[in-house]
Amino acid sequence: MDMEEALNSTIHPTCLQEPPLAIDIIKQLDVFGVALYSMLTLMSTMSLLLYLEECVFIYRKVPSPKKTTIMWVNGAAPVIATMACFGMWIPRATMFTDMTSNSYFAVVVYKVLILLIEECGGNETFLKRNYKKTFKISTGPCCCCCPCLPRVLVTRRMLFLLKLGALQYAILKTLLSILSIILWTNGNFNISDLEITDTASWINPFIGVLTIISLWPVAIMFMNTCNTLRSVRIILKYAMYQLVLVLSQLQMAIISILALDGIIACSPPFSSRARGTMLSQQLMIVEMFIITLVTRALYRRTYDPLPSDPHETDIDQNTNISLQAPQWEHAA
Hints:
disordered N terminus; Rhopdopsin 7-helix transmembrane proteins; membrane; disordered C terminus; transmembrane
């Protein structure tokens, strides 16, 4: 105990306190800090304005229901940048801004799957295009090391299971975020507390499992449709989605671990963990601004419809012949 008290006495008091208030940050900003915060705020504002302008274009030029799906997917980077800006100015609200960003991105994961289906023409057209075809399911993040897994026949039931696998994350992530906030108000949820008795030690790993399960159906769908959708630049679109996933989830987790281990030094008025969170928010704003510009170039345009599949044409012709046959017999 004496050793611990001696160690704490050599540490600046603010390094052991909660994140500072917004007014404390404003008071301690120097010229460089004012320039940095102003530039990052401008970037997040521009990301949001560019996204809103893009939504107007998509609403006018893209048919339903694909336009709603594109708006959801396109909003990932601007929403994360906006929440990061709020978290940068108001450090004590970081838990709420991070949960808002993560809950929105959980919906985006599901919407990316829907977008892949919509680009193929919708549910019915997708099933016709892939009639009697099989999908390879040995892909990441669940089964990339299992090439022996059998291929799965494309059916309406298989399509439903893929949607369900992605949708469960969007629903459960939002519910668990609300539960975490409720527990936090009662002092039972603390992200920095790694004790087995704290609820964060149980909720966060469970969310990680849900994330992996939800990413698998999207990866299956992309891997089996990327050649068909190459004309709509689906590979670049999917790469932007993957980049947002890595930066918003993995990068933030790595910085948080470094801060909890004390590798990121304390800098009053920021504790080690608060400073790590601040650095993460600042990086996120710059990265999401760049991704917003790239996705704008990919989505703010119209693409030619996919060419009809010869196999699908044969099915339609056979259906028409079977429907017309009774009329010819009746006429005879």
